[in-house]
Structures are given as structure tokens and as C-alpha cells.
Automatic annotation (TrEMBL), chains A, B:
Domain Aminotransferase class I/classII large: 56-393
Xref: CDD domains: AAT_like (cd00609)
Protein's GO biological process: alpha-amino acid metabolic process
Name of this chain's protein: 2-aminoadipate aminotransferase
InterPro entries for this protein: Aminotransferase_I/II_large, Class-I_PLP-dep_aminotransf, PyrdxlP-dep_Trfase, PyrdxlP-dep_Trfase_major, PyrdxlP-dep_Trfase_small
Amino acid sequence: MYNFTEPLKAPQGSAIRELFKYLGRPGMISFAGGYPSKDLFDRAGIGQALEDAYSSDPVACLQYGDTAGSPALRRAILRLMNDRGVTRDVDDVIVTTGSQQGLDLLIKILVAPGDAVLIEEPAYPAAIQALRLAGARLIPVRTDAQGIDVDALTAQLEALDPGTRPKLLYTVPTFANPTGATLPAARREALARLAMRFRFVLVEDDPYGELRFTGESVKPIAAFADAIPGASDWVVYFGSLSKIVAPGLRIGWSIAPPAITRRMLVAKQTSDLCTSPLAQETARHYLESGRLAEHVPVIVQAYRKRYDALSSALRQFVPDDIDYVVPQGGMFVWARLKGGRHSTDLLKRAIEQNVIYVPGPAFYVRDPDESSMRLSFAAAPGEAEVFEGVRRLKLALASR
Amino acid sequence: MYNFTEPLKAPQGSAIRELFKYLGRPGMISFAGGYPSKDLFDRAGIGQALEDAYSSDPVACLQYGDTAGSPALRRAILRLMNDRGVTRDVDDVIVTTGSQQGLDLLIKILVAPGDAVLIEEPAYPAAIQALRLAGARLIPVRTDAQGIDVDALTAQLEALDPGTRPKLLYTVPTFANPTGATLPAARREALARLAMRFRFVLVEDDPYGELRFTGESVKPIAAFADAIPGASDWVVYFGSLSKIVAPGLRIGWSIAPPAITRRMLVAKQTSDLCTSPLAQETARHYLESGRLAEHVPVIVQAYRKRYDALSSALRQFVPDDIDYVVPQGGMFVWARLKGGRHSTDLLKRAIEQNVIYVPGPAFYVRDPDESSMRLSFAAAPGEAEVFEGVRRLKLALASR
């Protein structure tokens, strides 16, 4: 009766939210959550930042702030970006209410109903959902264990109907959700060139980039684009404190070309006026305290141990049943059931065994790989639980 | 080159943001700000709430939270709404990142490019801008000193082309921005019936409702709709802590029919995942502390004094030049220059005299009243400054 803009289908990722009801079940072991580990928040450090922020300038915490974000926080973010190899000015940064809002703002200014949008597949479900809500026509882009297959994408773009010009391409190039894959340097450069050639905005979503526990660090695509004249006009970078400080602050940021930043600011004004100044001031004091540089290695080391436990357990308990992609960091292992089995079917029996994960189809735009599944090791409380969880998966596999 | 969804015109309200640069000028007296007074934040009470929230449950402050908002905060909001005469269940409330986000979510699910939308005129600029960004076809609705002229609106709706069904009507019925007008009870009931009859969603934006300093309190339209079978299906209410606690928390809420709430939640998930749990926990502890009931009268009394000073000064200094609407609360006086003078022209001379206000045209969709101007008394630091500000307006008027 209300005449909504879009029919309400089951939202992308609703299979994931369905799983939430099992999280609190006594004895449940979860590989499902996409949340960072609550045991690894720097509670004392963030608490100190909160106290410093409020006691030094309560009005800055309580009053409306700039739509673009606090200049001091933006400068602290620029220093972080500089360490990642990306050099920009304060005017190029917008503080967003989580990086999710950055994507939302970009979609608002760029994507009209029916517009073509490229998206890596499998992909982060809330990105798929945000694009669907805007009425985008999604074109999935093939990935392998190293992220987007740039040759395949090039062929795909060359074969497009000349009337189709994709507005943007969405990717998480480092420790992707759900695959854990990391795009190598050569592909990053090629992707930046492709964006310029085909004039689409390349969205580099980078929440996990600092969580590397093995292998050599690779710069953001935005840094590669800087070295190619004209390419940085086509790259929008989203960063976030959610996985390295705390999601509860809802502090993310965008780094974009001036014409895009200008319009995103108008969209931000109409979306929430500004990101919580209380959260911004806390984030600023935390970043200025220098504790992040000490704390990120603590998170990384813990995640490495949990990943090591998960991979050992998979090799020990289910070597003939489950294959997986080896990540170099992040929070996720992307696995496949051998022998044509479906992860959605297995989940029912896994729940009986008190273990859960996210079936892979939640991450697909179309033609899902029914065998796939995402195992999150980040939120596992300890190595013993990880082993026990995989042992239960083995029982679930045996119970068909 | 990016092929944006909409051409970037000067955003609605950009005239207001233009004025910001004068705010810091030494000796400037501002009637321009739409901000609550920074001197009236309950700094100690909010500080205590912050401390209580973080020390009692740091993980709740730091981790992701429910998309709909913390259940405890939603219950506290329901108690507040109950005091306003509106009774609902916890599932009817979404905590939003300011009430601006509530409007943004509703527009996302309801307004497609080209859709007709009714909006009171003059209106809050960020509402106009949000609707424009969504490509809405705006139909202004006439107001008088008591808000929307419901008879005129009825005639307007009856005269609409049968193919035009407005998706929604936006109004601030209590102490409106910019007019300060308050819709009387009979018009509230009539408006609720009209929404039902013409099947548009009536958006009741209510950030100022508790700031009454004279006259009898009138319930929200949502409460009137509850007494008319079927009418509450057509009313969406937005509340906010920005004007009674602090804007820096970015805590607002929606109260909507279930089918609308369900879709707004999907839109919220893709907009920012959840409102900052740190801000939510702080708001919850503040509301549970009971200090709000003691603090709102402090704000109201201060605003009443500032309004009294402004109206005395207008009568004393410029009785033959400026007419104004008498508000019963809120933060604004809506004034008109007599003799066909334009408020935009006067502003240039006002700036020379070190006083600013917002020219009325910023609040119009079309055909602005060029004589109109918004004078905010909320942020004036004291009665002496108010008198001095109006004396300067008189000088500006004389300097033509």
C-alpha cells in the first residue's frame, strides 16, 4: 500500500543474520561472525582517549561538527594513510560513519536505478545489498585466490555492449571478505589503468589491510594509481577504524578526487549532518596517543594464532572433505566442500553439532558456488575452541 | 566525466553555510546558527553517563550493535515517547544517527526519481536537499503562523492530477524551523485524516517539541493518529536528542508502522550498519539517570529569556521595519522586512555592522518570500548581546 521504491526481497546477508540467533546458544562455537574479537579491544587505551577527549573539550564532543569531519582527526587519518603509502591533503578526506557510509554516499551520487556496476564475486554482502537498494544492475567480476582476475575483467569490459558504461567497481583488495584473497601489486596497477581506460570509479574498500600476519605488505591501489598520471581521478579509497580500533566508534573515512568529495559532502549533509563528534574526538585522541602502532601487532599476533589453529585443525580433521584458500591476513578463511556437497545443507547438521559458519551463497550476486563457506577465525576465543569447532564440523560431515 | 546522478547545483542551505565563515569574526553577533546553545549542555550529567557506560560495559560501547539500536536505549526512548502521549512497542523504534538519518532512510525506501513529495514551505533546508538529491518532485504546501494550512492543502490534493500520488509530506509541526509555528490540535487531527485519505506518509519531524516556553502543550500528530482507526499506518515520527541532550551524540529515532520499519532497517544496514554504540550507551545511561527531566526546564527557561530579549529589542529598535511571528517555544523567530525590502540585500549591510541572520529564501523550494529572515535566539550568549545585535540591525537598515 505504500508503493515502495523496490520490492523487499530477502536482503543479501539475511542468511548471515539468521545465524545470529544461534550465537548465544550455550556451548555454540561460531566461525560465522564478521566481527573483530571483543577480547582484543584496547579497552584501557580507548577509555583514556575518551576521558581525554571529554575532559579537554566537552563542547567539541557535544556540539555539531563539520560535515567533513574534525580537521584534527582528518590530519591523524592522513598520517595513517601516509604510512600506507598514500599521501593526500586534509580536504581529500571525509570522516564517515563507518566505511559503510562512505560506500553509501558514493552510491548516492553515482548510481541511478538501472546503472551497471561491477562487483567482485564473491563479495561483502552489505555492499551487494547497498547497490541493490539503489537499483544497480550488478555485473559480477571473477576472482581467484589472488583476488580479481584482471585479464578476465579486461575481456569482460571489452565485450560490453558499447551503451554500457559501468559506473563503478567494488573490491576489497586486501584480505578480502569473504575470500581472504590479496591482490598482487601487478594486478593493482593493471586495475588502476583499467579504471582510467574504461572510466569507472574503482572503489577500494580497505578495512583489513593492516591485519597482515604473513607475507610482504602491498600498498593500496590508491598508491599505485598515484604513480600513473590521471589514474587517481578514478580511485576512491575507504578506510575504517572498526577492525583496528573498535567498530563501536563508527569511524571510517573516504579519500576521493575533489569532484567526488565535493558531492559526497552534500550527500553526507543530508545523510546524518556529521559523524558523531564524541566518537570523532575519541578516535582523534586515540590516534594521537600513538597506541595504535603498539596495539595493531597485538591484534595481528592473536589472529595469526587463531588462523594457525584453524588451518591445522582443517588439515588434521577434514583433509579429504574441505579445501581452503590460504590467507596472508585479515579475519577469514574461504573454504570449499569437496565431492559436490552443499554448504547450506551441511549447516543444518553443523548446528546440531553446535558449530556454525556462513554458507558461501550469501556472498554471491548470482550463480553461487554451493560448496563454498566462510570460516571466520577472528572471533574464536582460543585455539582449543577452534580445534573443537573443526572436530564438530567433521562430525557434521559424517552425519549425512 | 563521472556521470553523476544529479547535476550539482548550489545545495539548499549553502547560503547558511556561507555565513559560517563570519561566525568566528571578533565581535560578531549571530542570529544565524541553528545549533543549540553550547552553554546549556548538561556537561556533568553527560560526562557521568559516558563514564558509567564505558566502565560498566566497555564491550557494548566498542563492538558492533543491533542495526535497530540497543534494546535498552529503545526502551528509554519509548518512555520518553509515552510522556509525549505516544505509546508503542520496542520493535517500532529504530535508533538513527540523528533524526536526519531517519528522513534519509525513509526517502531511500519510498522516493524514486520523479516521485511527488509534499513539503511545508518554508522548510528545514536539509530536508529539501535530501529530497532533491533523491530526485523528488517537490510540491510546496502553504503555511501560516499556525503551520500547515490544512484547508489549502486539502484543496491542493483534490486538484492534483489523478496520476499524481504524493509519496510523503514533510512537516515540523511544533516550533517549526524556520517559522517557529506550532500546528494546533484540530489541524493535527485533520492532517492525519488527510494522510489516510490520500495515502501519503506523513513525516512528523519533532526535534524541538519539548522546548515550549509558553502556551499549552499539544501532542504529536502521531498521538492524534492513534485515535483514528487506520491513520497511524500513515504517520512516521522522528525524534532526536540533539536539541535536548546534545547533537554530538548523533542520536535520533524513528517510530513507524511495521512495514516501513522493516524496510528502513534494511536501508539502515546498508547506510552505516548501526548507530555508534558508544553514543547509544551514553544516551541510554543519560536517559536512565533521570537528569533529562530536570535539565529540559533549564534549557527552556534560558531560551525563553533569550526570546523575550529578542522580541523586546525588535519592538524597541525596529518596530516600523520588522514584523515577526510569535513562537511558543523552540529556537527561532521568523521575521519579515516591511516596505518590500529584501533580507538578502540587508544581510550585506548587517555583516558590515557585525550581525548576521539567515535570509528566508534558503528555506523555500520556489517563489521565496524575499522579505523573510530567520533569527535564532537559542545560541545568543546573553540578553545584552541580543539587544546589541538588534541595535546593529537597525543601523544596517538605516545604512541603505
